Amino acid sequence: MKAKRFIPGAGAHLTREQATRYGCEIEAITARSRDGITPSDVLEEAKNSSSPLHNYFEWDDRKAAQRWRIEQAKYLLRHIDVIVELEDRPEEKIITRAWQCPENGSGYQATKRIMESVDARSLLLEQALRELEWFKTKYAILQELSGIFTAFDMLAVKSTKRASRIQKRPSSIRQEAHA
User: pTM for this one?
Assistant: First the structure.
């Protein structure tokens, strides 16, 4: 591999400068480790107030505890699935997340409600395509997945064209298009 640069990953709340600073520090920790690196290793290094990682972390235990509880609540919302039985095909069952969190900041919504709204469903599809693009970027080095990436590219083009056609319709017609 060639020389590398660190950049923020998709959806990261980091500037390029932070990604570079933190990435270089984490790489240094990794170089000192024989068995790989763990989040605990990073946290241990960050405890030192002179570490470049120190200011990334919240050191006020009250604030950190509240943030952790929020992360635990997010975990519950992201990791409880629901089995959906299709009325027209009772032999088929779909397992999906019970709640989805569209990136529009509206909070978690019941997946059933999202699927009933053309606009919300379209937002979820856009989000799914971005996540697939992230997956493709993350694993681009694995040539064994090239067939999957080709299929994804075809799906992305097809979905983008369809979403564009639906979004051009008035809201009342968009609802009928989904029905």
Answer: 0.59
Question: Per DSSP, what are the bridge partners of residue 83?
Answer: 95
Residue 110 lies in a domain: no
More confident residue, 126 or 15: 15
Please state the domain count of the chain: 3
Angle among Cα 133, 136, 138 to the nearest 5 degrees reads 110
Q: Which residues pair with 95 in a beta bridge?
A: 83
User: Do 31 and 71 fall within a single domain?
Assistant: no
Same domain, 23 and 48: yes
DSSP string, 36-68: ---HHHHHHHHTSTTSTTGGGS---HHHHHHHH
78 in a structural domain: yes
Q: Where are the alpha helices (DSSP H) in 33-170?
A: 39-46, 61-79, 111-116, 118-138, 146-167
Q: What residues make up the domain containing 27?
A: 1-57
Q: 164 and 153 share a domain?
A: yes
Whether residues 50 and 70 fall in one domain: no
91-143 tens-digit pLDDT:
777 777 777 776 666 677 778 888 888 888 888 888 888 888 888 988 988 99
User: How many Cα atoms occupy the beta-carbon half-sphere of 123 within 13 Å?
Assistant: 17
Percent of the chain with pLDDT over 70: 84
Residue 9: DSSP 8-state: P
